[in-house]
Amino acid sequence: MELRLSLFGVKCSIDLSALARFRNTWVVLAALVLVIPLTLWLLAPAAIPDLAHGNVAGAQALATGWVKGEMIVLVRHGERCDHSKAVCLSGNDGITDRSRSVAVAVGARYEQLGLNNADIYNSPMVRTVQTAGYMFNRAAVGEDWLISCKGRMLQEALAHKVPGRNLILVTHSECMTQLQKDLRLPTDIQGYGAALFITADNTQAPQMLGVIEASDWPSVTTQ
Question: Which CATH number do you get for residue 100?
Fold first, then answer.
């Protein structure tokens, strides 16, 4: 293959046979540039579903699983006083005063779901004790496994899960992140008062159902 050029009376020719030999190589490289990112995108873990904002199917699955006592819920404590300029509820190691009303409002949502078939635990840190107190009108002590949860969050949760009863764990962002790692999901930090819902029905491996942020409960609907 030869390319002939003529410019201002000057003629030259370029042998393209050498380039032609590399044609297939270039085609393969171009395909790899397109295929590799697409493959990585397809194989990447799916984001955690949002159970609010009109996700009726997700909210219905939550309600159904709750009635059957199949849910494990990780709830993040209220706003940390030592990470905020807001007024403290009591002491610098607890939650802010304004997060008290948030905890009460979120607790009312769990009351609507039903707490008669739920076991509730919280870490012994002041911020989780206060959150559990205002959210569920009860607080446990001595649950150190809800602080030191590295590599064991899912294992510990399943060990405390009673068949036919939901399990609510008031804990910390680190433990929620660890659970996402245990389930081989992309990790994300949820806001104060947010909840991760996991389905654990003893017939299959635990699965992430979704997340509800504290401010998003009014948009959760099963209708």
Answer: 3.40.50.1240
Listed in sequence order, the residues at least 6 apart from 2 whose beta carbon sits closer than 8 Å to its beta carbon are 13, 14, 15, 16, 17
Is 170 inside a domain boundary?
Answer: yes
For residue 103, what are its two tokens?
């905890």
> The pTM is what?
0.79
Tens digits of residue pLDDT in 178-221? 999 999 999 999 999 999 999 998 788 999 999 999 999 999 98
Q: How far is CA 120 from CA 10, 33, 73, 176, in A?
A: 89, 50, 9, 16
Residues 57 and 132: their CA atoms lie apart, in Å, by 28
Chain segment 38-64, per-residue pLDDT in tens: 443 344 446 899 999 989 999 999 999
